[in-house]
Predict the 3D structure of the following.
Amino acid sequence: MKKESISLETQLSAWCAETFAACFPGVDLSTIPLAVIPSRNEEFGDCQCEAAMKLAKELKTNPRAVAQQFKEKAVLPAFVEKIEIAGPGFINIYLKTAALADQLTAMQSDKKLGLPNLGKNQTVIIDYSSPNVAKPMHIGHIRSTVIGNALDRLYRALGYNVIADNHLGDWGTQFGLIILGYREFADAEALKTAPVEELERIYVKSYNMSKEDETWRDRAKAELVKLQQGDKENRALWEKFVELTLSEFNRIYKRLGVSFDFYRGESFYNDQLAGTVARLKKEGLASVSDGALVCDLEADGLNVAIVRKSDGGYNYTTTDIATVISRTAEFQPSEIIYVTDERQQLHFKQFFHICKKIGVPTKLTHVWFGLMRLPEATFSTREGNVIKLEALLNEAEARALEVVKTSSPGMDEAQQREIARAVGIGAIKYTDLSQNPQSLVTFTWEKALAMDGNSAPYLQYAYARIASVRDKYAAQFPDKNPDDFPIILTEEIERRLALKLTRFPAAVVSAASLDRPSVMADYLFDLSQTYSSFYQNVPFLKADEGPRESRIRLCALTAAILKNGLALLGIETPERI
Ligand code: ARG
C-alpha cells in the first residue's frame, strides 16, 4: 500500500508538541495552540510556531526565554534546515530545499495530491439548499446551494462519507391554502410554463383571502386536516406540488452541477413529531404556556422555543429535533452541518441546545452567511432578495460568451458556448465562495467576470495557460518524460512556488475544518499569482535540459492543483478559454 504523504506542517506541529512536552514536563499544554503555520512573512522562514508566546503568558515568564529553551532542547527533524527565534518569541522554521522537492515528488505520484484520509469511517451529513415547495428559491437558497455543495466536495475529498440531504420545506399549514386555491383559481397554462411562480401566486392570493374571509379560512383548514389524515385526493395534489417544484429546482441543480443523496423534506419526519414532543415532555424540557408547549431556554440566553402550537400543530423546531434524532439513529454521523442564511441563527442555536440536553451525541454545526446585495439594475428583483435564478445564469453565460469571443475569436461557436457555460457558472459560484460568507457582499458583473482579479475566469484562464505550457513541452519534446528528471529548486521563485504547492493539502483541510470554502479560493488565487511570477522570471522551454523538465513538473503540478482545487469548489476548468 502507498504511504500517505503527510504535510510538512502537520509533521512539524507534532514535533513542536513533543519538544514542548519534553521542555516543560508536568505543564498542561492542552490549551496552548502548538500548531506550526505558514509564515506570515516570507522573510521569517517557511513556517512558524507561536506557542512560546502563549505558553509564556500562561507561565508568567519571558517568551523569548521559553523559545530559547525550546531551541536548546530541539532535535531538528531531517527535513528542517534551521530554526531561529525572532521578535517577541516566534520560532521560525526553515525547511531544507531538498525536502520540499521530495514532498512535491510524493504529491505528484499520489492521485489525491497528498490529501489525507481524515474522514475515514466518519459520516458527515450536509443539509443544504433546502428550499420550500411552492415558493421560488431566494438568494439565501442559492448561496446555501453553492456553499453547501463546496463543503460537500471538500469533505468527500478528505475521505468523509458525505450524505448530502436536501431538507425541503414540503410540509405545513400553507398546503391547506394552496390546495383550496389550486382548486378554485389555478391557471393551467401558467402551471405549465412557470409552475413555481403560479403556485406561489395561488398561495399568496389564498392567504390574503383567508385574512379577510372566515369561511375561506375554515375551508383551507379543512383541506389541511384532510391532507394530514391522508385523504387520497389531497395527498395526490400535494405530491403534484412537490413534483412541479422539484422539476424546476432540478433544472437549476443540473446547471449548477449539484446533486443530492437524499431529498428528505420536512414531511419525511412528520410521523415522528408527536413522539419527539412526548420525549421532550418526559425529559422535563417542555412545558405548557398559553396553550402551547414550549422549551424555556431563557436561562441559557436563548429565549423560548415553541414545539407544539396552541392549535396542536408542530413547527420548524419540532421537525428539526425529530430530524436530528432520526438521522443520528439511522446514520450515526459524527457531524451534521446545516447551511442557511444568517436569519436562522437563533433557530439553530435553540434546537442544537435542546438536542444536547436530550443527549444527542452528534456534533451539530450551523454554517451561516449574510445575504448578498444585488444591485437593482443588475437583476430583476422582487421583495428585495428574490431573484430569477435561471435568468441570472443565462445572463452569466451570455456575458461570459462575450469574454470568450474576445479571448478566442477563432474558435468555433459551439465550443465557445461550452466554455462560456463553464466560465459563466464558475463566475457566479466563485463570487459566492471567495468571500468571507459572513460579510455583506455586493455582486457586480465586472468583478465576477474580471480577467485580472480574484475571479473564476482569472483562475480558469491561468489554468488553461499553464496547461498549454505543459502541452507545448509534450509537442516539442515528444520522446522525453519530465517525470524521469528530478525536481530541483535553484531559483528563489522556484522554491517559493514549491512551498506554496506543498500547502495544497493543508488548505483543503483548513477550508473543511473551518467550513470556509473561501480558504480554498484564497489559496488558489495566491498560488496562481506565485505561478505567474515564476513563469515571468525563469525560462521554460528554452532552459537547459534538467531545469527545463523540473520546471515542467512544477507547471504540471500547479495545473493539477488548480484543476482539483477549483473542482472542490464545483468550478470547471476548460483546457482552453
Ligand atoms: N426550508 C428552510 C428555509 O427555506 C431551510 C431549511 C434548512 N434546514 C433545516 N434543517 N432547517 O428557510
Notes: The first strand starts at residue 36 and ends at 38. Residues 174-256 form one domain.
